[in-house]
Specification:
2 domains, single chain, globular, about 40% helix
């Protein structure tokens, strides 16, 4: 058995588990704010562990759509689309999850009064820039948002605070304010909120 433990939010956290043994499966249970996970080719003796996902040799096993208690694991939603976009753009999937959590709460039909639509709340101009023809389509929306994050990372030299500020207020606003977070109430609150999700969604460093 290969035990793997990490802190997750009560709703779940972003993580991929690499199966180290042939046809290893993913077992786990929820205990408060912690999800205990085991990757194994045989069922654990501890009966608290339930089978979440069957794996294959050399393949990644993703978190289950539901916890043992039946609560949805938010980060399992749209996981394949998010990881596809992350691979294409080299943007951390945990960052994409964090943006989606704050922007739409994983509601693909979310709309804002400003005209933003979908999981990553794309504005019409942003959608057009990145070839998104249907902002309500989760895969297109996530891909467009991830591409935007990628370009913002290049523009602001990987400074995540400025990247997120630009995602919220626009890159012009960040540049106008001397490459600093614009003093807009919404943006000032948005940046630490997304970063807070991002820190929780990322795997804990070894040790």
């Amino acid at each position: 058995m290969i035990p793997v433990q990490m802190r997750w939010l009560a709703a779940g956290a972003a993580m991929l588990f690499c199966a180290g043994t042939a046809h290893a499966d993913l077992y786990g249970f929820v205990d408060g704010d912690r999800v205990s996970v085991i990757i194994s080719d045989t069922p654990p003796e501890d009966t608290r562990y339930k089978l979440f996902k069957k794996g294959e040799a050399g393949r990644y096993v993703t978190p289950p759509p539901e916890t043992a208690a039946g609560e949805p694991l938010q980060l399992a939603k749209y996981g394949s689309q998010i990881h596809a976009a992350a691979r294409e753009t080299n943007v951390d999937p945990a960052l994409i999850h964090a943006v989606i959590s704050v922007e739409s709460g994983y509601n693909p039909a979310a709309r804002s009064s400003a005209g933003a639509v979908g999981l990553m709340q794309l504005m019409p101009g942003t959608a057009k820039r990145y070839g998104v023809t249907n902002r309500l389509d989760p895969a297109q929306n996530i891909r467009g948002g991830a591409r935007y994050l990628r370009d913002l990372k290049v523009l602001f030299d990987g400074n995540l605070q400025l990247v997120l500020a630009a995602y919220n207020a626009g890159e012009e606003a960040v540049m106008k304010h001397g490459r600093r977070i614009p003093p807009y109430r919404e943006t000032v609150a948005y940046v630490p909120k997304v970063l807070g999700h991002y820190r929780r969604f990322r795997p804990e460093a070894p040790g």
